[in-house]
Amino acid sequence: MAASTADLRSTRSNQAHATRALGRTLLYAIAISLGVLLMLPIVWGFISSLKPETEIKLLPPVIFPSRWVPGNYAEVWTTKLFGQWTQNSAFIVVLATTGTVLTAALSGYAFARFRFPGRNQLFALTIATIILPDVVTLVPRFILYYQLGWLNTYLPLIVPYWFGGTAFYIFLFRQFFMTIPHDLDEAARIDGATYFDVFARIILPLSGPVMATVSIIAFIEHWNSFLFPLVILNSPEKFTVSIGLRWFAISPVSDGRPLDHLLLAGSVMMTVPIMLLFFFGQRYFVRGVVMSGIKG
Amino acid sequence: VAQAAARPTVATRRRSGIARQEALYGYLFLLPWLIGLTVFVVVPMLGALMLSFTPYSLGRPVTFNGVDNYVRAFTNDPQFFASIWRTLNYALIYVPLSIVGALLVAMLLNQKLKLTNVFRTMFFLPHLIPIVASVFIWTYLLNPKYGLVNEAIFRLFKIDPGPGWFASKDWAMTALIMLALWGAIGGNQMLIFLAGLQGVPGELYEAAEIDGAGQLRKFVSITLPMISPTLFFNLVLGIIAAMASFANAFVAANGGPAYATWLYALHIYFSAFQFGEYGYACALAMLLFAVLLVLTAVQFQLQKRWVYYGGETR
């Protein structure tokens, strides 16, 4: 009797084991297929960007080119103003990201460390601006920039980010600063340091991780930015990469050659800085996104 | 005696002086943001509210025409209700699919598989591709004639011609949703869900197993309530993003064909930047703002019934 119960138990545990192994295999199968499915467009775009221009549109489509043409990348660089656009994007992104990080840090510090009347209400207001998508503020801000004479300049794409960054980044800084012990600033204050000294010499040097997080996310956001550059910039030599690429796509070239291979090469090139940043800063990136969701 | 009486006053005064100084510096640190909020958000929004009662276009003097813009939107603009309907249609399909999809992907990554980091990166990459680049790649993939997707459909199901995708008014919305889902199910929402799932204490599952709960029961009674704050967060932001969706539809199909991807955000854009009717576009933007405000407020009311705060989350 006892033996049969033990047998039963061991059979049952063997069964459970087999079921679990099967389940694991299935999970791996799902994960791999999903990964392949999601990566497919990226890989296909990359392969196609190395095709000769005549093989982009073939019936039936061929997966691998008859010969690889890395020259597409050299060609896109000198076609239209791609080089110029990349420089423009780099210029805007570096300035906008620097402003975002610095002023979001200041605001986050104010919300994390200082007691002042209206603090909680102002913080709630910061968070509330999340419900203002770009599309809502687009026309109002466009009219403001028109009044200021800022259209077709980089000012609207840089200056606002030197004034407080975005709710999300302020939130990230605040959460991080709240984890730094108060004793540090108090000790420095007793030694006669000003609030700015404390911020610049004690708090910021300890804030590498959150600075990295915000820099990476803001850099990607500014690099990918589309809507505001689209309405603000209207002379081709001032375009950013994203606006330039779209212009490239909709304006036929003079000799009527199909440009699809260059368009794909341009798309891939535009993605490379983002990918590099993500691979090297993945840890910080993921942490930032995750912090935003906890206690959202 | 006088000194003894004075001492607390000095101390109190010094303390209140410190508090005042602290408050002053607090405002000082906040100053850039306060200026930015005022100049780049509050003033333009108030200005736009005012301009929404005018037939304003750039460089013209401002003349009021009352609620004409709003009346026109509701009575004399065929694309107004049509674009709202399209946007709702898009949001009603996209938001649930993206949330359920992101949650399922997060649950998959929470199974402690080997190479989880590699999988996470693979799932996340589509989210990082700049919109213009991803739209170009997808318009090639979905090209009705030469695209890989229709070729696959032909090989597998012998359907020819396949769907027209962005070239067909019947398929453009589907293509748009596919494109958006591709970027979303492994993206930020998924990472947030994953963090939520990792925050569920293991003891809860152990206790439930002892009580004989199955997988489904554990999911419904433990996982869902414990991650309800992240679910709420993703839902609120997901709905706002869907209602304001612009770039994919604009770059892929420019609102067409036959208005099939003319979402509300594109209606605002074209009213202003194609037709030059800035006053009218301001009115449209104000209406969207009002709708988002109401939708979000309603969700914050409803969350009291289903979002569980507490447990071990900070």
Any overview of this molecule?
Chain A is mostly helical. Chain A is built from 13 helices and no strands. Chain B is 74% helix and 0% strand. Chain B is built from 13 helices and no strands. The N terminus of chain B is likely disordered. The interface between A and B is large, with 93 and 100 residues.
Top keywords for this entry?
heterodimer; A: 296 residues; mainly alpha; 13 helices; flat; B: 314 residues; disordered N terminus
Short synopsis of the structure:
The complex is a heterodimer of chains A (296) and B (314). Chain A is mostly helical.
Work out the number of β strands of chain B. Answer: 0
Total helical segments of chain A:
13
As an assembly, this protein is heterodimer
Largest protein-protein interface = A-B, 93 and 100 residues
Straight-line N-to-C gap of chain A: 57 Å
Shape designation of chain A: flat
Spans of chain B of at least 5 consecutive residues whose pLDDT stays below 50 are 1-6
Given helix and strand content, the structural type of chain B is mainly alpha
Number of helices of chain B: 13
According to DSSP, the number of beta strands of chain A is: 0
Which parts of chain A are unreliable, with pLDDT below 50 for 5 consecutive residues or more?
none
Q: For the residues shown, what is the average pLDDT of chain A?
A: 85
**How much of the residues of chain B is beta strand, in percent?**
under 5%
* Main sheet record of chain A: none
Q: List the secondary-structure elements of chain A in sequence, H or E.
A: HHHHHHHHHHHHH
- Describe the main β-sheet of chain B briefly: none
Shape of chain B: flat
